[in-house]
Amino acid sequence: MNSIKFMSEAETMSTEAAIDSSKLKEEYSQFVGRKVLLIIATLAGIVVLAGVAATLGSANITPIEVYTAILARFFPGTFETTDFINTIVWQLRLHRVLMAIFAGMGLAVAGAAMQGILKNPLASPFTLGIASAASFGASLAIILGAGFVSGQWLIVGNAFIFTMLASMTVYGLARYKGITPETMILAGIAIMYLFSAMTSFLQYVGKSEQVQEVVFWMMGSLGRSSWEKVGIVALVTVVCALALMYFSWDINALGAGDETAKSLGVNVELVRVLCMMIASLITASVICFTGTIGFIGLVAPHITRMVVGGDHRFLLPTSGLVGALILLGADTVARTILAPVILPVGIMTSFLGVPFFIYLFLRRRKEYW
Amino acid sequence: MVKITIKDLSFSYGSREILEDLNVVVGDSEVLSLVGPNGSGKTTLIKCIDRILKPKGTILLDGGRDLQTMSRQEVAKYIGYVPQSTTSALTTTVFDTILMGRRPRMGWRVSDEDIDKVVEMMKLLHVEEFALKDFSELSGGQKQRVLIARALAQEPEVLLLDEPTSNLDVKHQLEALDTVRSIVKTTKISAVMAIHDLNLAARYSDTLVMLKNGMVHAVGDPLSLLTKENIRAIFGVEAVVMRNLDRPYVVPIRSLNGEAP
Ligand SMILES: Nc1ncnc2c1ncn2[C@@H]1O[C@H](COP(=O)(O)OP(=O)(O)O)[C@@H](O)[C@H]1O
Ligand SMILES: [Mg+2]
Known about the structure:
- The complex is a heterodimer.
- Chain A has 15 helices and no strands.
- By secondary structure, chain A is mainly alpha-helical.
- Chain B has 9 helices and 12 strands.
- By secondary structure, chain B is α/β, with parallel strands linked by helices.
- Chain B has helices spanning 42-49, 72-78, 94-99, 112-124, 140-153, 170-187, 198-204, 222-225, 228-235, and strands spanning 2-13, 16-27, 31-35, 56-61, 65-66, 79-82, 158-162, 190-194, 207-212, 215-220, 237-244, 247-255.
- In chain B, 33% of the residues lie in helices and 31% in strands.
- Chain B is globular.
- In chain B, the strands form 3 sheets. A 6-stranded mixed beta sheet of chain B has the order 6-7-8-3-9-10, sandwiched between helices.
- In chain B, a hairpin with a 2-residue loop joins β11 (237-244) and β12 (247-255).
- The mean pLDDT of chain B is 89.
- The N and C termini of chain B lie far apart (37 Å).
- The chains are: A mainly alpha, B alpha/beta.
- Chains A and B meet through α1, α2, α10 and α11 of A and α2, β6, α3, α4 and α6 of B.
- The complex binds adenosine-5'-diphosphate and magnesium ion.
- The site of magnesium ion has 5 residues of chain B, from α1.
- Magnesium ion binds at residues 42-43, 84, 162, 194 of chain B.
């Protein structure tokens, strides 16, 4: 029909007003530019930290040797490295470093998406019972040796399948009362208690070495990583993160309330369910290999939100990078601080992240949520 | 031309019938106000028109297309909605809040045209000085103006406003309604608003629809509709109606509590 043109005044706009408009646009593009800059800076930080992390360990090698060994694999003629360094970097350390990066990224993106679609600062895939479902799956494998797959993938497969089962159940329960943040969170909490109780029961009947293994699994560790596993985690994380970013505008609109989102053309329930499933898939793929690392998904998005604000076009990727940085940093410290003892990374993430989080939280005077 | 034709519209929350067999026509380039006491169904009707709620009956747009068969995205291009109050939980700047109104019309990337539209709306509603402030830090009235700007950024054919003046001071009430009316007249869109102030309704509307208990009590222009009798029947209030510059002017006298209306 008639396209709207309010420009009748604007056409005769005084030069003063014209300057005003271009100044507003300028300010906004600076505002966006700062976020892009932050993304680039975080990315650079990860590359540097990755190099440093790969140098640390029982064998002493320098960052230059690490980068050379990496480049030598891609440009064999141009860069020279020794077999020893090559083995240390490629077979021992690099996959673990990459696992930290992609696992941290995945958990953080999933957390940011969950907080957005549930409009709840405490939401993360873990509040929806996912961690306890994964723990139950792993316990079942460790203690009873029972599960859906067999062999070396038993624990992984169980953790993954129970995680996805939990999120399907949350969805199924919430559907009866309408897919709102409240119904999903309540259903999630119910599921969480159910799986925790079942895990406790298994621990009660299990042998003490088995129980110990379960406890270690639940603390989270990157020690079980391999190139194969990194490949899976990286693929799932990147594809799912892009999918979630595709919904950025819809998640933004949900933040203004379901009714407003509907009036802006968002299919509210569909977006909420899809994003929840995607976030669950990322989480399941990560924690089935690492055990439950809970803290990143909650705090990385908060730290990011305090800095870049609530626009999910920027919040999702930046959270991912911040999550990668935190987990990589935590794992590096966990590997080295009490060397040769390697601490579970789940313990370290909290030790490192909490003080930083509290600092930002106290320093910022504005409401950030 | 007709923008919206509402035929035999009914809506119930569970078993409770809220709207009953409503028939309303919203014409081209007109401001239509819904008046009626609290709980008479104004908000519900507005939400039905925006398909936030799904009523029974038919709503035809532009005389032809059936609203109930359109996708949300299509509806969002046609209808802009300004909610009565908003509890935005997440932080967003005023600029981003208004930019969200472009969602039905833009892809993932924001084009220059979208930015221009946002800037234009900010100036129109006088919120440009808050551009990069957080929406949650604004006063109630400033928020309301931002929400009107967001709805206009959708470039809708019909603007729905739920008590747009309830949070505004006198000056901003007049300014907001002036803006709405002038946009309606210059761009030939239509506005449907729920409003409590009968005098503002009379001054800024072409048509009034009086609602009572989810039914249309009367429809017409402000002058013929705002009579002592109608006000008594709808609100249970005794009032004097004066004339001022060809507009009715309502002075409420007392509530007829308990007395038969
Ligand atoms: N979510 C709801 N569930 C059940 N009843 C509702 C709901 N929202 C409104 N109502 C009822 O619908 C009727 C009309 O409400 P509403 O449209 O908000 O009136 P108005 O905007 O005219 O004050 C009221 O009686 C109210 O109690
Ligand atoms: Mg109302």
